Every structure is written in structure tokens, then in C-alpha cells.
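User: We ran a pulldown and think these components assemble together. Before we commit to crystallization trials, I'd like a predicted model of the whole complex to look at. Sequences follow.
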Amino acid sequence: MKSLRVLIVDDSSVMRKIVERALRQAGLNVSELLEASNGAEALAEVQKGALDIILSDINMPVMDGLEFLKHLAALDSAKGIPVVMITTEGSEARVVEALSAGARGYLRKPFTPEQVRERVAPLLGGNQ
Amino acid sequence: MRTMSSQGSQGAVAFDPNWKTILECAALEVFEIMAGVRLEISSSSEEQNGGETAMVGLAGALCGMVTLRCSRQSSVRLASRMLGEDGASNPSTARDALGELCNMIAGNFKGKISQLADRCMLSVPTVISGEDYSMSATDPSQGVTITLLFDGEPICLSLIIQN
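Assistant: Here's a predicted model for the assembly, 291 residues in total across the polymer chains.
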């Protein structure tokens, strides 16, 4: 099983911990966990090195998740990194917008570790 | 579970008494999934004024607020269930966890009402610590309050709607 470098993007440190815990409870082999509190910080992390997957909130200050996706699409170094959006809003429109902007999936809060695995594992190229 | 409710002429969604059941359902789901606890709904309207109060504002087709109140001890126990030892060791983390629970309950609630899902925005959560305060909404307002029991301790959840 491949070990994963994961970036979690959320303005709430508690939500970042919850997502990390859910990834580990889902049985995913997370070797390195990077955190960012908004899209701008996340772009800086992306440019530092290879990531296996990004999980990002949509509603954030400074740069929200949708804006982050648009900037990410323009980065050569980010090509092929799957992004899963995490949302509290029940808005279908926001989810459609995120998927159109390049997100490969989404998780709606509240989520179980099983749901995290269902959304994340298929995006990891059969390594999990 | 999704429901429909009447819509006013200016796009506002009118308060529906059936929302109490939907709010209960939304809350029970969030506590069970995120904290691994199956709460009971109390038949009495036991008040919980103290400790911590998390608030999330609603704006758009529905304007108002969702509040979640519990004792400090309950907030720490909930946080430790959500986050492990990290949640129990830091009071600030426990408060933030309560805010996130309130945020998820508000989001889950509006997601179950088809007319609100795309047309009602949530604020970031705010948490007040302490007991020496009172809350009031500008009239006219309507709302529902439910009391949930967590290890016998009340957790009060309110939906206050500005008409």
C-alpha cells in the first residue's frame, strides 16, 4: 500500500483534525499530512512538492475553495493531483461549480470514515 | 429526508412547524456520525443556559440563527469523541468543535429542505463562553428549541427565524 502525502485545506483547525482522523480511520496510509487554512496557503504548499491528494473546504477567507481550484488548474506542478471538496452547505449548485472547476469529488459534512474512503480511495490509482 | 414549505412573495421561505422534526433528525445524524453518540430527545424543555453556546447565522431565503448550548464538561466530552485526546486537552479546541457541530447541524438541516439548500447561506460559527448573558431576536421572530440528552446532560438546540 503506497504511503500518501495529503494536503488538507480548511480555515478551521478542528475540521482539519477531523478530516485527518477520518482519513486514518478509513485505513488510508497517510505518511505526511500538510495543512493550509485557505486557498492561497494551499497553493504555496502545492508548489513545494508532490502531493497524492488534496481535500479542501469550499467556504474559506482570503481565497475560497472554488478560487483555489481555478488557480490550481493553471499550475503545471499540480497536474494530476486529485482534489476532493468538503462542504457543509447543502448547495447542489456549489458542488456542480466545484466539479466543473476541476474537483474530482466532494464530501458533505457530516461524513463517516467509510464515506471518506469511498470518495478518496478510487482517486489514488489503486494504491489503497 | 427533504421537505417543501411555503414561499413568500419576495423569495423568503416561511417558517414551518414541521421543521422541529427535521432539526431533530439533522442534529441526531450529526452527533452520531461526528461524535459517535446516539442522543436521546428529551420530552421536557429542560434549559441549558450555561457553559458554551455555539451560534451559526442564516441569511438568504431564511434569516436567523441556529444555536447549540451545553455545559463546558459536555463540550469537552463531545470534542474528545470527535478528536481524541486533542479535544479533551484544550478548552479552545473543545469550543471550536462545538462550533463545528453547530455549523454541521445548520448545514444538514437546510440541506434537508429543498427550497433552502441553494438559497440560504451559513455564517462561520461563533462560540460564547459563560452564563451571564441573554439572547433576544428582533420581533417578529419564530423558532423551535429541542433538548437532547448526552449522558443525561441537556444539550439545547434552537432555530430562531427572523420573519
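The two ends of chain A are 6 Å apart (CA to CA). That may be worth checking against your pulldown data before setting up trials.

User: Thanks, that helps.
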